[in-house]
């Protein structure tokens, strides 16, 4: 069973949170509410999120300050942030949003279809990264225990290698399709860059897995970093 991604919705007005939930419910993911910047930071201490929808104008800690705290934490600094704002003070205000670490800056009222499409891209990228980490974990188990077991047993771990290769191939195919979709839709530069980074990690993992095949060389291949 595939685990659902979590999406953090941050807004001090309950009616806005309700509207966001109505728009994003079709994605069938887990929607988490936060009514303030402080509450959002608490949620980020324990849970992993695919994307954050962050209101700019909030009492106390506003969206810009909240984003600054998120980007300073190693655990959360890579989570995409989409700013939502009901005010528009021109290019300087928009630039401040991007400078704070946002991948997008959307003014209210916004098109629900556009917002849902943007969020879905980051959810899909998040799910692909989760699959990649699972494959890397299986590969590490093979590297740490498979070599020793093979030395004590004449039986080759071909079945495990084949399973790893098949799972990785499925992720590679989905990542390639996603990259093509981003190219076709002229998506945000941040989403394209994230997809390219995912493909590079997949390439490194494929090389490490191929090196485990009999007759491909000696030594223990390194597993690519997941950062």
TrEMBL record:
The keyword Phosphoprotein applies. One of its GO terms (biological process) is phosphorelay signal transduction system. InterPro entries: Bact_response_regulator, CheY-like_superfamily, Sig_transdc_resp-reg_receiver. Transmembrane segments: none annotated. Pfam families: Response_reg. Residues 6-123 form the Response regulatory domain. Keywords: Coiled coil, Phosphoprotein. The modification 4-aspartylphosphate is found at residue 55. It comes from the Bacteria. This is Response regulator. It comes from Streptomyces longispororuber. The lineage of its organism: Bacteria, Bacillati, Actinomycetota, Actinomycetes, Kitasatosporales.
């Amino acid at each position: 069973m595939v685990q659902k991604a979590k999406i953090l919705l941050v807004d001090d007005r309950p009616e806005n949170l309700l509207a966001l939930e109505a728009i994003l419910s079709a994605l069938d993911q887990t929607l988490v509410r936060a009514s303030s910047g402080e509450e959002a930071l608490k949620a980020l201490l324990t849970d992993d999120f695919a994307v954050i929808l962050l209101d700019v104008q909030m009492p106390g800690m506003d969206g810009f300050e909240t984003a600054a705290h998120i980007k300073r934490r190693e655990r959360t600094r890579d989570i995409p942030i989409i700013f939502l704002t009901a005010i528009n003070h021109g290019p300087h205000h928009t630039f401040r949003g991007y400078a704070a670490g946002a991948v997008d800056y959307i003014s209210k009222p916004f098109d629900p279809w556009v917002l849902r499409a943007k969020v879905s891209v980051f959810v899909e990228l998040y799910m692909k990264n989760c699959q990649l980490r699972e494959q890397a974990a299986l590969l590490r188990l093979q590297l740490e225990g498979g070599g020793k077991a093979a030395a004590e047993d004449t039986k080759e771990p071909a079945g495990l290698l084949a399973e790893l290769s098949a799972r990785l191939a499925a992720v590679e195919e989905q990542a390639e399709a996603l990259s093509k979709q981003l190219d076709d839709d002229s998506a945000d530069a941040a989403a394209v860059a994230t997809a390219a980074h995912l493909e590079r990690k997949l390439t490194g993992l494929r090389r490490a897995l191929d090196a485990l095949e009999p007759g491909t060389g000696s030594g223990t291949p390194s597993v690519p970093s997941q950062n």
